[in-house]
Design a protein that fits this description.
134 residues, alpha+beta, Nuclear Transport Factor 2, Chain: A, 6-stranded mixed sheet, 24% helix, globular, DUF4440 domain-containing protein, NTF2-like_dom_sf, DUF4440
């Protein structure tokens, strides 16, 4: 039987794939929203910090949901490499990895990191997602 840490690492790997599958879809807002905590933040390259629900609506920040609205279509496909799950504790973990993705003939290579927290319902949700171009 796998240890608790091994099960958490496998759960985090599955959740990261779900996140990237959602981010690769043409209309990811609903699927990404389901994977996030209400105060989740996303850091995409060359973008301001995007919050699911900004703390200060008077700042006129673009929300993550607005960014992900159609005609959003970031990539056609992706591949995660050098995936490294790190268990922080029994209810938190971080995934770090290299990402290779493409849209048409445009290639995207980056490193990425997503911190996940497990809620009282047992579901893993995004706290922070970050990508850095390489």
């Amino acid at each position: 039987m796998p240890s608790m840490h091994e099960r958490i690492m496998e759960d985090l790997k599955l959740k990261e794939r779900q996140l990237w599958t959602a981010l690769t879809s043409a209309d990811p807002a609903h699927a990404v929203n389901k994977l996030c905590l209400p105060n989740a933040n996303f850091l995409f390259p060359n973008e301001d910090i995007l919050a699911l629900n900004p703390d200060d609506p008077d700042k006129n920040e673009k929300t993550l949901q607005e960014k992900l609205a159609p005609p959003f279509h970031r990539f056609d496909d992706f591949s995660l490499m050098d995936v490294r799950p790190t268990v922080i504790d029994l209810m938190a973990g971080t995934m770090t990895y290299r990402i290779s993705a493409y849209r048409g003939k445009r290639q995207y290579n980056a490193t990425g990191s997503t911190t996940w927290a497990q809620g009282s319902d047992g579901e893993w949700r995004v706290v922070v997602h970050q990508e850095t171009l390489i």
